[in-house]
Amino acid sequence: MKDVLKAMEQRFSTRGYTKEALTRDELDCLVRAGLQAPTAANRQEVHITVVNGGDPVLREIEEEKNKKSGIQDPPHNFYYEAPTVLFLSAEKKFSWGSLDAGIAVENISLAAEGLGLGSLIIGCIKDALSGDKKDYFADALKLPEGYAFEIAIAVGHKAAEKEPHEYSLEKNVTYL
Ligand SMILES: Cc1cc2nc3c(=O)[nH]c(=O)nc-3n(C[C@H](O)[C@H](O)[C@H](O)COP(=O)(O)O)c2cc1C
After folding, report:
1. Ligand 1 centroid to 45 CA: how many Å?
2. Using a 6 Å cutoff on CB, does residue 9 contact ligand 1?
3. Which of 56, 57, 131, 166 is most exposed, with the fewest beta carbons within 10 Å of its own?
4. Which of 62, 71, 122, 150 to probe ligand 1 with, by most ligand atoms within 8 A of CB?
């Protein structure tokens, strides 16, 4: 298990996975990491739906997203054949829901890296999940009543490498 600083330094968005499924222990570790994230006022409102990579709902979301983006041939695979995709949703009426889900998804991403797994945070499907088929997808993903999709994360064994992104201390940090 990597320490948290190493995990932050080495994590990258993984856009390719082997077919190897995650174990129950790995899944438990990921969902616990999500729920261990802090939430505003300790509301603990973030819900996680764990979806198997072969579940037809993933193809349906993908079709809807491709339709919305006008992508037809070849269709874009947003999950990169990951064996598991976690969907995070939060209470619509709670103003901190999006931020809480963002913090939780990063905890999951770092936990995945700590376990030697790859992950990809997926936000681009939000329009597909909040458009005309919003209620259909909320039902298919078993979102709790009054909840809306916030963010997804694909997790699996890495079959693609990439350098972590570069960043600029000069541009993005001010010390007063
Ligand atoms: C909120 C959020 C949404 C993202 N949505 C997508 C997405 O839909 N598809 C994708 O391929 N990458 C997505 N990413 C990954 C970013 O493109 C990636 O983090 C960024 O390019 C930096 O690369 P790195 O993660 O490898 O350091 C998302 C990242 C964040 C934080």
Report:
1. 23
2. no
3. 166
4. 122
Domains of the chain as residue ranges with CATH:
4-172 (3.40.109.10)
Atom 14 (ligand 1): residue with closest C-alpha?
Answer: 121
17 contacts: CB under 8 Å, gap ≥ 6: 80, 81, 82, 83, 118, 154, 156, 157, 158, 159, 160
Q: How far is the CA of 44 from the centre of ligand 1 (A)?
A: 24
75-118 pLDDT, tens digit each? 788 999 999 999 999 999 999 999 999 999 999 999 999 999 99
- Distance (Å) from CA 43 to ligand 1 centroid: 26
CB atoms within 10 A of CB 106: 19
- Kindly report the backbone phi and psi dihedral angles of residue 134, in degrees, each rounded to the nearest multiple of 5, phi listed first: -55, -50
Q: What is the pLDDT of residues 34-71, one digit of tens each?
A: 999 999 999 999 999 999 999 999 999 999 999 988 87
